């Protein structure tokens, strides 16, 4: 009889890390270590909500539409607002009624006058909930003492808003505090605790959906960009599953940040939100992290065969690390230089490749940078047409879509295809092309995007499984049956381990395989 999940690991203490989770027994890839419901949770959409009263001068402010139910976390097209506070939104009267027990006290606080022109952020709402639920953070890491002075000052204003809101309706909460400064300090400590110990909820479409705090052992799972476990969500419920085979004594880690970001951005997020410096292999200065950093930040040369070959080798090196495989290529070729364009000292307006010495004029580079900014804006505008449910003309949207795709393809002549901004734009136009039912175009974009995902996340990632399955479905819609089924079978191996056999995506996959059996 298999051991229960909590007998497969233990909570340990390491001097340089604090509390951490360590494997006691061997676990195969796909093993579910944790299933947990949150103690406190808030949909991400709260930060896009408008204040109840909008100043005339701010009427043009673009507030995004709330489309996530604050109770069941399902997306919806029609919303039902709480009739009392006008802040919390549900998908139906049923959810509104079911949520009242959880929302009742919070509702009173949200009726505070301070929220008429100040919308509470997601982290502020989490802090308010922690006070109302009398949640004890004693066993969890994070304290005011570890905050630098400027960060403490940064938290003072939102802490003041929380204090005013709570004291206006729930004054007894702070009856034991001596003065206002000690109240602020206590609230800021809650900000730190929640920042350090909460997880971002990711929905079925791999989009951020909310923030949640789960009881131990979840907060004790440390971060690694090369984690051996993955967090999967079914609405607010969390599942932590092993990505690879794990052996006794190994620390179990999850990733707090999107590893598609460049190294500096990831390090900044870890320090700014979680107050630590990541020291995993993708963040330390070494060949693997350098390859990933170059792909995200530098202008690459592919003018010569030697440069193309070097880029391919860099990709293989990175994929090998992501998939925990040995790479037997000669790494000495990277010691002298990488195939990147650098501005020369000899000629002021010329950029030269470090390997083949190919040259590009400064005007080309400036034009490229401007084109990237322009394309990012165009892709975001196009996405807003769909997310905000505006009316649009299919023909003009399709023209804009093809234009953006052509620009992205051009940008990849100098930028690597895994550059964060290019990946996000590809994901947006893929979504839009599917909404337009332009499946041939979507299939083309998906195939381009898959290569980027493999190099960025590796084949063990749930993101890879998700997009392999999506590409397979698109192939079936285009009557490319053998290609589609091949991709879906490939996705199945990933999804059963990452999402699990009871997940909605796996059940959907099984349905596609069954209906296309003959």
UniProtKB/TrEMBL annotation:
<keyword id="KW-0863">Zinc-finger</keyword>
<dbReference type="Pfam" id="PF01753">
    <property type="entry name" value="zf-MYND"/>
</dbReference>
<feature type="domain" description="MYND-type">
    <location>
        <begin position="69"/>
        <end position="107"/>
    </location>
</feature>
<dbReference type="InterPro" id="IPR050869">
    <property type="entry name" value="H3K4_H4K5_MeTrfase"/>
</dbReference>
<protein>
    <submittedName>
        <fullName>Histone-lysine N-methyltransferase, putative</fullName>
        <ecNumber>2.1.1.43</ecNumber>
    </submittedName>
</protein>
<dbReference type="InterPro" id="IPR002893">
    <property type="entry name" value="Znf_MYND"/>
</dbReference>
<dbReference type="GO" id="GO:0008270">
    <property type="term" value="F:zinc ion binding"/>
</dbReference>
<dbReference type="GO" id="GO:0032259">
    <property type="term" value="P:methylation"/>
</dbReference>
<dbReference type="GO" id="GO:0008168">
    <property type="term" value="F:methyltransferase activity"/>
</dbReference>
<keyword id="KW-0808">Transferase</keyword>
<keyword id="KW-0489">Methyltransferase</keyword>
<keyword id="KW-0479">Metal-binding</keyword>
<feature type="domain" description="SET">
    <location>
        <begin position="150"/>
        <end position="257"/>
    </location>
</feature>
<dbReference type="InterPro" id="IPR046341">
    <property type="entry name" value="SET_dom_sf"/>
</dbReference>
<keyword id="KW-0862">Zinc</keyword>
<dbReference type="InterPro" id="IPR001214">
    <property type="entry name" value="SET_dom"/>
</dbReference>
<dbReference type="Pfam" id="PF00856">
    <property type="entry name" value="SET"/>
</dbReference>
<dbReference type="GO" id="GO:0005634">
    <property type="term" value="C:nucleus"/>
</dbReference>
<dbReference type="InterPro" id="IPR011990">
    <property type="entry name" value="TPR-like_helical_dom_sf"/>
</dbReference>
């Amino acid at each position: 009889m298999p051991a229960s999940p909590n007998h497969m690991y233990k909570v340990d203490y390491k001097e340089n890390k604090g509390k951490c989770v360590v494997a006691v027994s061997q676990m195969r890839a796909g093993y579910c270590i944790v299933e947990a419901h949150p103690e406190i949770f808030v949909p991400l959409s709260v930060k896009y909500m408008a204040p109840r009263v909008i100043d005339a001068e701010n009427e043009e402010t673009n507030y995004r539409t709330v489309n996530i139910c604050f109770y069941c976390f399902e997306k919806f097209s029609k919303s039902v607002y709480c009739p009392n506070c006008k802040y919390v939104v549900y998908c139906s009267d049923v959810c509104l009624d079911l949520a009242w027990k959880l929302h009742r006290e919070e509702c009173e606080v949200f009726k505070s006058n301070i929220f008429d022109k100040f919308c509470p952020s997601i982290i502020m709402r989490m802090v308010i909930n922690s006070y109302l639920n009398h949640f004890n953070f004693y066993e969890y890491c994070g304290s005011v003492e570890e905050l630098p002075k400027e960060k403490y000052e940064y938290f003072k204003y939102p802490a003041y808003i929380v204090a005013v809101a709570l004291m206006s309706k729930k004054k007894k909460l702070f009856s034991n505090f001596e003065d206002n400064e000690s109240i602020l300090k206590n609230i800021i400590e809650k900000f730190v605790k929640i920042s350090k110990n909460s997880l971002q909820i990711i929905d079925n479409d791999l989009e951020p959906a909310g923030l949640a705090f789960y009881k131990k052992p979840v907060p004790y799972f440390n971060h690694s960009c090369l984690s051996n476990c993955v967090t999967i969500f079914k609405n607010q419920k969390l599942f932590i599953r092993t990505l690879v085979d794990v052996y006794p004594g190994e620390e179990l880690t999850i990733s707090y940040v999107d590893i598609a970001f460049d190294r500096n951005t990831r390090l900044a997020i870890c320090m700014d939100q979680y107050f630590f410096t990541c020291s995993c292999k993708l963040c330390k200065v070494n060949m693997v992290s350098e390859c990933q950093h170059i792909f995200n930040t530098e202008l690459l040369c592919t003018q010569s065969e030697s440069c193309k070959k070097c880029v391919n080798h860099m990709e293989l090196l990175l994929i090998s690390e992501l998939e925990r495989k040995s790479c037997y290529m000669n790494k000495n070729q990277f010691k002298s230089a990488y195939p990147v364009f650098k501005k020369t000292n000899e000629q002021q307006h010329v950029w030269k490749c470090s390997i083949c010495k190919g040259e590009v004029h400064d005007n080309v580079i400036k034009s490229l940078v401007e084109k990237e900014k322009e394309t990012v804006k165009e892709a975001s505008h196009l996405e807003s047409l769909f997310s905000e449910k505006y009316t649009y003309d299919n023909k003009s949207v399709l023209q804009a879509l093809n234009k953006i795709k052509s620009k992205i393809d051009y940008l990849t002549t100098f930028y690597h295809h895994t550059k964060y901004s290019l990946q996000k734009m590809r994901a947006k136009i893929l979504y839009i092309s599917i909404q337009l039912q332009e499946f041939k175009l979507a299939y083309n974009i998906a195939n381009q995007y898959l290569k980027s995902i493999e190099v960025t996340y590796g084949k063990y990632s749930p993101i890879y499984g998700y997009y392999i399955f999506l590409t397979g479905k698109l192939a079936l819609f285009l009557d490319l049956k053998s290609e589609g089924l091949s991709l879906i079978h490939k996705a199945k191996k990933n999804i059963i381990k990452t999402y699990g056999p009871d997940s909605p995506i796996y059940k959907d996959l099984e349905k596609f395989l069954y209906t296309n059996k003959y």
